[in-house]
């Protein structure tokens, strides 16, 4: 990228902001968005913050046909003293480029992208809600826009960032969920796109989710695509189990997304001296541990909920109630610590926080 | 769908048509397109033929994030006496609905969709080229348009049909290609979306294709995602082999697309009394057959090329030259017959042809 200036075009009207207690994830968007174009051989160019607006895209654009796209998800948090801060945003842009590589999308300059979201969040700073547990969700994504029906990497892309204020995930305290182990559908397989954050993985997941939610389950637990024996993820989260005092999570194997929260949980546990290991975990093992009274906790990890305790796991008609259906001690402690760091309430020994400097704000 | 009328808004300007000998697949589009909307609880509505134009879509629309989409591909052919006809279009809409079901997209009325494309092709009839081997490519597709970042089936969709005149696939006679057997990346797996025609499958295929094309191969041959042993497809085509007098093709197993051309090839072979079977085929078997001099022909089948003979297959560094690198007898015969039927040059014993009735054309 040659030209690293960000053109700024402010919105003439301002939308009304939803009430803090009426925020629904991903439904309301702020006044502005960041857009940058890619074309061959120009590279990434034309970085701009513009009013939030519909995209004008040719119906033959590749994104509508061959799904070449990647995305990210992170949050900005408002601290008690009114500052706005991000949680490990570098990790998201690093992962975005890894996803892009798998999808044959040209990489972006990670530092520049971070600068862009800081500037965008600064412009829409008033949209960062301040009620307990609320935040501003940041969605960077890249879509392939070349108007061409051939199956080939696109030569035109748009990198876009949109912002959505979101409410507290747990309004009435953390609530453990019921999860069904999926043994018909597969989310991802070795050699596929599972470790990339790309649309097709999510499209592939809808059917299983639809089927189990009819039976009262919150999410599915995905097994590996090869043997359908080993645990991979839970819904759109990574998954952890505490078995006989040790915390385990599936090892990254190419079909599992490398969650930022997953990595943070592992770091925290190590920091606390709690045994944690990344390895292959079979359903058979989990079931046996449960039978033996050793399956002490289970939880999902992800940006949306941070920690989502699993109160029950149902596998092939067998119900495994975990920790009496209650939130486990470690689940709670990890949740409290990560959210504490995010909102600036507890010390950040890992330098995970990146401040959105209000002083670099554009005057308007 | 309640209202089955198709609103017609003709384009005020007409684009210049490319020369028949300069047509490139999927780059030029005709003057009009068909659009129909879906919303909950209205269902499919607002069917219209309108001037070809960019779509205005919210940046939060699901298609840009979670890849919920399906598509089809078929062709209209001009016969020697100037008529325009379609090849088995019902099969495409049947498959579209099967794909939609896997992707949690509401079904369309297949008969109405056929009526819509007939009418659209009639409106843009002048765009159906008449030079040898040329045709009008028809691309129906459905995209999820709800402006919502939640991972859930969209409640808004657009069904769109665009048309693109395409040149002859084989300008200098059929040309066998070199194919690399892919053993790193996987296109689809049992329990995944392989048998649906959805964007994510194609996005997942780009990387492997990019890697092998650097080494001079035209396409990859995909193996199954579970054992990486069994043949699935070749590029975006189904695949056939003639082994010791018998024609074999991989059995539909959930991860293979049920090609319309594949089905037509099987029907034709049966009609001719040539032994054909659908079954599991391992690379080991193919290699052994080649060593024994029994691998007599290999070809891909698909709407774009109809038949694409495979002159060489490279597996783990082993080159298998097939039929001396030449087009086989059956490959040629199948190609001649299917294209003959498509252009109205040979008898159509199966009733595969559907005429686009010019007399139902809208006056303009
Ligand atoms: C499939 C999948 N797994 C895991 C995660 C968790 O990743 P992170 O902790 O970075 O949000 C996500 C995203 O939220 C996801 O979409
Ligand atoms: C993955 C894949 N396999 C096979 C085919 C062949 O299908 P058809 O003969 O219907 O064109 C296609 C589409 O053309 C395809 O995309």
UniProtKB/TrEMBL annotation, chains A, B:
Pfam families membership: Aminotran_4
Pathway(s) served: Amino-acid biosynthesis; L-leucine biosynthesis; L-leucine from 3-methyl-2-oxobutanoate: step 4/4; Amino-acid biosynthesis; L-isoleucine biosynthesis; L-isoleucine from 2-oxobutanoate: step 4/4; Amino-acid biosynthesis; L-valine biosynthesis; L-valine from pyruvate: step 4/4
Necessary cofactors: pyridoxal 5'-phosphate
N6-(pyridoxal phosphate)lysine modified-residue sites: 197
Highest taxon in the source lineage: Bacteria
Database matches in InterPro entries: Aminotrans_IV, Aminotrans_IV_CS, Aminotransferase-like, B_amino_transII, BCAT-like_C, BCAT-like_N, BCAT_family
Biological process per Gene Ontology, one example term: amino acid biosynthetic process
Enzyme class, UniProt record, top EC level: transferase
Protein EC: 2.6.1.42
Gene3D superfamilies noted in UniProt: 3.30.470.10, D-amino Acid Aminotransferase, subunit A, domain 2
Catalytic activity: L-leucine + 2-oxoglutarate = 4-methyl-2-oxopentanoate + L-glutamate; L-valine + 2-oxoglutarate = 3-methyl-2-oxobutanoate + L-glutamate; L-isoleucine + 2-oxoglutarate = (S)-3-methyl-2-oxopentanoate + L-glutamate
One MF annotation (Gene Ontology) recorded for this entry: branched-chain-amino-acid transaminase activity
Keywords, in A-Z order: Amino-acid biosynthesis, Aminotransferase, Branched-chain amino acid biosynthesis, Pyridoxal phosphate, Transferase
PANTHER family to which the protein is assigned, alphabetical: BRANCHED-CHAIN-AMINO-ACID AMINOTRANSFERASE (PTHR11825:SF44), SUBGROUP IIII AMINOTRANSFERASE (PTHR11825)
Family as reported in the entry's similarity comment: Belongs to the class-IV pyridoxal-phosphate-dependent aminotransferase family.
The protein's name in its UniProt record: Branched-chain-amino-acid aminotransferase
């Amino acid at each position: 990228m040659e030209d690293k200036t960000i053109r700024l075009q402010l919105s003439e009207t301002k939308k009304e902001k939803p009430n803090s207690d009426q925020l629904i994830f991903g439904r309301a968007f702020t006044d502005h968005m960041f857009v940058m174009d890619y074309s061959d051989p120009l590279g990434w160019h034309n970085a701009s913050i513009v009013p939030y607006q519909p995209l004008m895209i040719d119906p033959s654009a590749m994104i509508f046909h061959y799904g070449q796209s990647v995305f990210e998800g992170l949050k900005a948090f408002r601290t008690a003293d009114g500052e706005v801060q991000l949680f490990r945003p570098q990790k998201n842009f690093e992962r975005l480029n890894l996803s892009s590589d798998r999808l044959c999308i040209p990489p972006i300059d990670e530092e520049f992208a971070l600068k862009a979201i800081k500037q965008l969040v600064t412009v829409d700073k008033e949209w960062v809600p301040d009620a307990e547990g609320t935040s501003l969700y940041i969605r960077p994504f890249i879509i392939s826009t070349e108007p061409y029906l051939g199956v080939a990497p696109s030569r035109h892309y748009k990198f876009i960032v949109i912002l959505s204020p979101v409410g507290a995930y747990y309004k009435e305290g953390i609530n453990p969920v019921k999860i069904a182990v999926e043994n018909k559908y597969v989310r991802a397989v070795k050699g596929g796109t599972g470790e990339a954050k790309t649309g097709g993985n999510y499209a592939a997941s809808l059917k299983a989710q639809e089927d189990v939610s009819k039976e009262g389950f919150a999410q599915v637990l995905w097994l590996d695509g090869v043997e359908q024996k080993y645990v991979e993820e839970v819904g759109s989260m990574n998954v952890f189990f505490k078995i006989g005092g040790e915390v385990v999570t599936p090892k990254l194997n190419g079909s599992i997304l490398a969650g930022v929260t997953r990595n943070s949980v592992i770091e925290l546990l190590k920091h606390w001296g709690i045994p944690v290991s990344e390895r292959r975990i079979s359903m058979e093992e989990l079931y046996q541990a449960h039978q033996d009274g050793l399956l002490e906790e289970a939880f999902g990890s992800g940006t949306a909920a941070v920690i989502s305790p699993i109160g029950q796991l149902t596998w092939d008609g067998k119900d495994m109630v975990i920790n009496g259906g209650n939130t486990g001690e470690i689940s709670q402690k990890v949740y409290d610590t990560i959210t504490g760091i995010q909102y600036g309430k507890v010390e950040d020994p890992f330098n995970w926080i990146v401040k959105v400097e209000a002083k670099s704000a554009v005057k308007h």
